[in-house]
């Protein structure tokens, strides 16, 4: 356990963010390597895997419910120096990781074909997406165990073990991708099935590694059989904090599904271009997300200890660091976005769609970084509903106008990208105002006894 309630805020933030960023950079390499090999299979494969991969947002929504509730409550307990409560929360998190994994397996296999029928541009895209999902769903189910254990460690201020596990699993995935997708060394190429299988194997290896760490090295929170029975009072505490962030990721699924639905009439090449562009964008975001994710346990421990001034300083430091990084990444996408996508496909039409997407969407990178940071701060405060409200506002500002635009004869893909930019900037302004109001409310409550 690392006490984050004393010492330099920027130093703590960097100490947490650097290992996390390293792990995310390795994750970025996996995304790009996996995408490179899938792109060799053709536009339909890229479009199918991209559309199928959107299902991960649903799983991420559930993992956010589990992970954010676990991290926030454990960080508060650590700030209060209440180890018993931290250990109780960890064990309850493990129980619900198993329940959610079972739900993912059953629901994933039951609904994967129906989902691809809705978003697939053609029969080949549909077939590729269904095949990928059938091999990737076990990996999605195993992610709950990773999130449960990783979030518990993050709440105690420890991030290096999860970073090491991420690095090793990504290296394994990178090694498996050419073997299983392209048949290197075996002569038996599995195609998109290999992409899903390599991810599942790597995630399973990560779960085993993290279990080994907890059994051998972790002593602040640990598995305790007496605490593995369902405690509904703890569940309610976790759900109160975790459900809104889960709702945010569910909305990401909705927004991405809207994009795929709206552009499907432009054909598989357009969906492939969007799939490549969005994967590259997600990879670009990961280092900045590391800063926002690091702010949550840092501010959470200080919130538990009653140090509201350090909570505010955490937010300021995270905004400065994340905003600066996002600005550099945006300039890169403005300069030569085609350089970021040319390595994944030789198709000129696909490259044009992906490059235009990155050039336009990069205008909202700084706003997106601010949204990430505000979301992390609401997790630390233990009130995540305002962050969900800000995300839900895009149902009105983005989803409905996008569906309307698609019905217009003059509709172009660029119109959809610019609509996304404008609505993300509006969301950033809205969530910043909500966070400022929440911090002022907390300050007023803490000052009441002194005034009296």
First-to-last CA distance = 37 Å
The sequence of SSEs as H and E is: HHHHHHHHHHHHHHH
Helix segment tally: 15
What is the total tally of β strands? 0
Q: Which parts are unreliable, with pLDDT below 50 for 5 consecutive residues or more?
A: none
> Whole-number average pLDDT?
85
SS-based class = mainly alpha
For the record, the count of structural domains works out to 1
Principal-axes shape call: globular
- What level of helicity do the residues show? over 70%
| Beta-strand share of residues | under 5%
Q: Describe the biggest sheet? A: none
Radius of gyration: 22 Å
Short description:
The protein has 452 residues and is mainly alpha-helical. The chain has helices at 9-39, 43-53, 56-80, 83-119, 123-155, 160-182, 192-216, 232-263, 268-304, 308-335, 337-341, 348-361, 365-381, 385-405, 413-451. It contains 15 helices and no strands.
Annotation keywords:
452 residues, mainly alpha, 15 helices, globular
Your description of this structure?
This protein has 452 residues and is an all-alpha fold. The protein has one domain. Helices cover 84% and strands 0% of the residues. Helix 10 packs antiparallel against helix 12. It starts with 8 loop residues before the first helix and ends with a helix. The model has no long low-confidence stretch (mean pLDDT 85).
Blueprint (SSEs and pairs):
Layout: H1 9-39, H2 43-53, H3 56-80, H4 83-119, H5 123-155, H6 160-182, H7 192-216, H8 232-263, H9 268-304, H10 308-335, H11 337-341, H12 348-361, H13 365-381, H14 385-405, H15 413-451
Helix pairs in contact: 1-6, 1-9, 2-5, 2-9, 3-4, 3-5, 3-8, 3-9, 4-5, 4-8, 5-7, 6-7, 8-14, 9-10, 9-12, 9-13, 10-12, 10-13, 12-15, 13-15, 14-15
């Amino acid at each position: 356990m690392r006490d984050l309630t004393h010492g330099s805020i920027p130093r703590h933030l960097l100490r947490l963010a650097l290992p996390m960023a390293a792990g995310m950079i390795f994750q970025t390499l996996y995304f790009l390597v996996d995408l490179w090999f899938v792109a060799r299979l053709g536009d339909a494969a890229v479009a199918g895997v991209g559309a199928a991969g959107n299902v991960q947002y649903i799983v991420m929504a559930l993992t956010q419910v589990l992970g954010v509730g676990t991290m926030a409550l454990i960080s508060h307990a650590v700030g209060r120096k209440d180890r018993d409560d931290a250990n109780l929360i960890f064990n309850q998190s493990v129980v619900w990781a198993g329940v959610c994994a079972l739900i993912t397996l059953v629901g994933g296999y039951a609904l994967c074909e129906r989902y691809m029928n809705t978003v697939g541009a053609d029969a080949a895209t549909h077939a590729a997406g269904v095949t990928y999902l059938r091999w990737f769903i076990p990996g999605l189910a195993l992610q709950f165990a990773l999130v449960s254990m990783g979030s518990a460690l993050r709440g105690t201020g420890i991030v290096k073990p999860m970073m090491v596990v991420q690095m090793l699993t990504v290296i394994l995935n990178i090694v498996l991708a050419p073997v299983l997708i392209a048949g290197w060394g075996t002569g038996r190429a599995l195609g998109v099935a290999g992409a899903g299988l390599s991810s599942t194997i790597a995630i399973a290896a990560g779960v085993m590694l993290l279990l080994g760490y907890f059994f051998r090295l972790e002593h602040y929170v640990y598995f305790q059989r007496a605490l593995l029975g369902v405690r509904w009072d703890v569940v309610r505490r976790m759900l109160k904090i975790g459900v809104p962030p889960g709702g945010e990721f569910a909305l990401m699924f909705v927004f991405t599904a809207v994009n795929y639905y709206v552009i499907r009439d432009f054909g598989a090449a357009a969906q492939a271009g969007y799939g490549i562009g969005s994967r590259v964008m997600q990879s670009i975001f990961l280092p900045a997300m590391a800063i926002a994710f690091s702010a949550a346990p840092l501010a959470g421990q200080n919130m538990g200890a009653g140090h509201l001034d350090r909570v505010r300083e955490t937010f300021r430091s995270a905004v400065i660091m994340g905003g600066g990084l996002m600005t550099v990444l945006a300039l890169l996408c403005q300069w030569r976005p085609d350089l970021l996508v040319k390595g994944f496909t030789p198709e000129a039409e696909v490259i044009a769609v992906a490059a235009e997407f990155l050039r336009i969407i990069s205008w909202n990178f700084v706003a997106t970084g601010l949204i990430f940071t505000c979301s992390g701060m609401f997790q630390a405060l233990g009130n995540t509903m305002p962050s969900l409200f800000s995300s839900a506002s895009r149902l009105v500002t983005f989803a409905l106008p996008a569906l309307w635009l698609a019905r217009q004869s003059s509709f172009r893909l660029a119109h959809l990208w610019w609509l996304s930019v404008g609505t993300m900037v509006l969301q950033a302004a809205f969530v910043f105002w909500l966070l400022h109001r929440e911090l002022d409310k907390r300050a007023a409550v803490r000052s009441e006894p002194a005034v009296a």
